[in-house]
Amino acid sequence: MSFSRRQFLRGTSLGLGYLAVSSPMPGWLGNAAAATLSGYAGYRATVCVFLLGGNDTNNVLVPRDAGIHAQYLDARSTLGIPLNDLRPINPVGLAPGAYGLHPSLEKLQALFEQERAAFVCNVGPLTLPMRKVNYELGDVPRPDNLFSHSDQQDAWASGISNPSTVDLPPALEGKATGWGGRTADRLHTHNPGDYPEVTSFGGKALYSGGAERQPMMVSSSGVLEMKGTSDADFNTLRSEALADIVALDRGVTLEASYGGVFTTAQTFASARATARAAAWDALPNEARLDIDGYFTPPQGATGWTLHTQLYQVIRDLVAGAVPSTSGGLGVRRQMFSVGLGGFDTHVGQDATQTALLLQVDFALDAFQKAMTRLKTEGVFGVNPPQSTLFTMSDFGRTLAENSDKGSDHGWGSHAIVLGDRVQGRRLHGTFPNLDLSAGAVNNLDSVDAKGRWLPSLSVDQYGFTLASWLGLGGVADRDHAFPNLTDYVAAATSGGFPAAARAYRIPFLLPDP
Q1: Which region among 175-179, 193-197, 238-242 has the lowest average model confidence (pLDDT)?
Q2: What DSSP designation does 81 have?
């Protein structure tokens, strides 16, 4: 069958993600970076796993001390996990078996004990450090629309918990940005060319957007290209017709801008596909088969999506880390975003969370196995790729269960961090007091009788720890990526808050030599 250009696009799906870059066309690979990387000369990536809906971390990480566990069961007689069903872990500096993990987290238990994983306890959105009395008096601003899904997802993704009142730097005014994207604004000079620093397969889109740099948005299957057909002539005509269309601007600025962005998106999509194929082929066949095997879900697993996204991250990560001389992209720093929904467990939480955490457990373990396998491959040179995976979620949930065998919207929660550079087998931060007796009036960690935890660490500190590991440095860069952090630390210092609140970073990553 033959086609004319005018027949192009009828019923055709393009599948290209959006891109908006500061320059009209990429200054492509091989250009010298404008800044010198500190810390690690090889490739580094962070991977954000957004657990959408508000993951109940009160059942992810549970004290096994008999007295504290009794307080936990008092608050959730139905949802509470019996002491003997918890998977014991042995955090550094604490009594053996002091804490346990949800029964679904068998692989995470092993990674924790191998010092590859850690928890960051009671972290959440904060504008300024706050005590319970401040919450009750209202003399310190709370995050906007606290306990709202969409607003608190935005607070985690943006690192700006009070967008209605925050005083943003001029470069950020009037722009919807996330801390991942703003970090990309400043890390851009570390990478050759104009290839996007952030690739998103899922999660919260706001996290990936910068003031200057914008992400590559990809489907969860990894596809970012035109849908091919079996007719080579049609495919050629379609590409030619598309080029003709995007070249038309008729003197209209918006049309010209769209055409430039779309053309750039095509260029990046093509470069990505070529690099992914070449870099993957540069790995030994045995390594490719091993990695494919790690991500093959167990029999009976249906509807799982997180492992698919993380597998695509591995494919992109390999493409980024392999030098351009071997067909890869040869970049130094990248960020990735994935997501898994279903964590809004107001009803029937036990079965729902059990299934979701099984999926999380498998996917995180597969990712870490793949990264460990890649360390042995010489295609990366003397510096194998490094990654740090971290979780975010809308909020934690109430310790007190509701009448529908579920839990309700909370605030502070416990995050998982995973990777070879993680200070593993540790609980970073302060685990909250679980005593809700007498309406929790004497519990300074809970803002109400239901056990909603007042965060002791902020999202800004959490994010800056990861961003600085990638290479973000200097006050100007920090204030651009995390515009609230300087004021937060100053208030914590003047207010006599604990040392952890007065620090810019949380020590969950090993320092560079």
Answers
A1: 238-242
A2: P
